[in-house]
Design a protein that fits this description.
With 97 residues, this protein is α+β, with helices and mostly antiparallel strands. Helices cover 33% and strands 39% of the residues. The chain folds into two domains: 2-46; 51-96. The strands form two sheets. A three-stranded antiparallel β-sheet has the order 2-1-3, covered by helices on one side. The chain has a three-stranded antiparallel β-sheet with strand order 4-5-6, with helices on one face.
Length: 97
């Protein structure tokens, strides 16, 4: 889970929470632009090391891995053939942490 806050020295406001790292990366530049325009600081809190990694297997097949780190750095991953099951797994892991 990634919590996104915009802050000043006297105020902090949570503007979004993402459970999907890939979705957050797509939106990150928007938050950075808002921070610049409002003269606030962008603070990203990575609440969990767990994430969903999308892997295109070829032949039109996609695998979704719920992983505790990036490839080469992770110790555990769970593989799914659909995003819904992967998101449910991630939710259950983070709820239990």
């Amino acid at each position: 889970m990634i919590e996104v806050k915009l802050t000043t020295n006297i105020h902090a406001e949570t503007v979004a929470v993402f459970y999907d790292h890939e979705a957050y990366e797509k939106c990150r530049s928007i938050f950075a632009k808002i921070a610049r325009e409002t003269r606030m600081e962008l603070v990203e809190s990575y609440m969990s090391k767990w994430r969903i990694i999308k892997n295109n297997l070829g032949n039109g097949k996609t695998e979704y891995q719920v992983s505790d780190g990036d490839v080469g750095e992770r110790t555990v991953s769970y593989d799914f053939d659909n995003i819904t099951d992967a998101e449910e797994c991630l939710y259950n892991i983070e709820k239990g942490e």
